[in-house]
Amino acid sequence: MLSSSLTTVKRLPVKKRLCFLLKLVCFVTSVFIFCEFLIYYVVIFQCQWPEVKGGAHMSKKDISTSVIKAIILADTHLLGEIKGHWLDKLRREWQMERSFQTALWLLQPDIVFVLGDVFDEGKWSSPQAWANDVRRFQKMFKYPVSTELVVVAGNHDIGFHYEMTAYKVNRFEKVFNFTSGKLLTRKGINFVLVNSVALEGDGCAICQSAEAKLTALSHKLNCSQQKPNHSSQRCGDVEKLPASEPILLQHYPLYRKSDAECSGEDSASPEEKNIPFREKYDVLSREASQKLLWWFHPRLILSGHTHSACEVLHAGKIPEISVPSFSWRNRNNPSFIMGSITPTDFSLQKCFLPYESRVFTIYCAAGALLVILILAHFQLLTPPFYFAQRLISKHKAV
């Protein structure tokens, strides 16, 4: 009987240690699950689709059936085998995958647009490296049959103009079913996909082909909208398209001097805002920009490339939204655009993803609390009340 009691006393500290260890494991696991999984639901759940007006003649029911819910993101820059470190790949791709899949599950968009620079090394990747990058992208950005994914080419996908070749363009087009001057019409809404890298204006074969497709599409759209400069004779044999003014989707922004007039928490930093943009590198040339505006008379332009947010009015009435990068490698506060679009109107709302600095702060606070708990458990940290009690007892003794 006595020996049994002694054994129980000896085992008690072991049980306490195991119980404490289990609590620590649960604490660490909970913090990890929140920071790497649940936080995306908490943040994106706060995003709501913007409301859009359909006109006085349309009821709410008509609006709900005619509206397209679109998510627009840009510059994912999936790292390649040359410059991409495995740990950087693992971290950034997990963040983007969780954000995208959470957004699809919570928001259930009809269509998702990716505005170029899907890959970081597409401009020089080998066939095998390209295949590996494509496979990773398809895993990260998988989508249900109820959602459509549309991808536009960027300079990191097919190279800058001086690096762009027919081989690189063709392999991108084959994977993403993309061609410059492609018209996408959904619910009477016209989306025009533009290979902005090919708008160099120097007469190269790829540039000539891209411009020819754009001018032909411009003619069709203008005939369908019955523009004054398009006579009925010129439009006699032209395929009729929905009369809705188009929305341009491209990688390069139209020409602007800099980001000096841009505002918002995800705009460029004060140091970067006043750096002048280079034509055909940071933005399209003045000539190419004027051509697109003249050809299509768009009601909205969506672009990427700069990694920062900006809103510009062209010709005093045509808005262009530069969509910031979707990757934490380029920003501390990535985001995407949510658009409710009808044939006659649109409304846009930005949805921010978790700030990486806040996730890091949570990890640091949890680590500090963990250290305190361990020190207190092993009585290596003297509680303040115990120190005060010792002072009081010494004073009484005197």
Automatic annotation (TrEMBL):
The keyword NADP does not apply. It holds the Pfam family Metallophos. GO terms for cellular component: endomembrane system; endoplasmic reticulum-Golgi intermediate compartment membrane. GO terms for biological process: endoplasmic reticulum to Golgi vesicle-mediated transport; GPI anchor biosynthetic process. Its cofactor is Mn(2+). Coiled coil: none annotated. It is found in: Endoplasmic reticulum-Golgi intermediate compartment membrane. InterPro entries: Calcineurin-like_PHP, Metallo-depent_PP-like, MPP_MPPE1, PGAP5/Cdc1/Ted1. Residues 69-308 form the Calcineurin-like phosphoesterase domain. SUPFAM superfamilies: Metallo-dependent phosphatases. Keywords: ER-Golgi transport, GPI-anchor biosynthesis, Hydrolase, Manganese, Membrane, Metal-binding, Transmembrane, Transmembrane helix, Transport. It comes from the Eukaryota. One of its GO terms (molecular function) is metal ion binding. Its main location: endoplasmic reticulum. It is a multi-pass membrane protein. This is Metallophosphoesterase 1. It comes from Urocolius indicus.
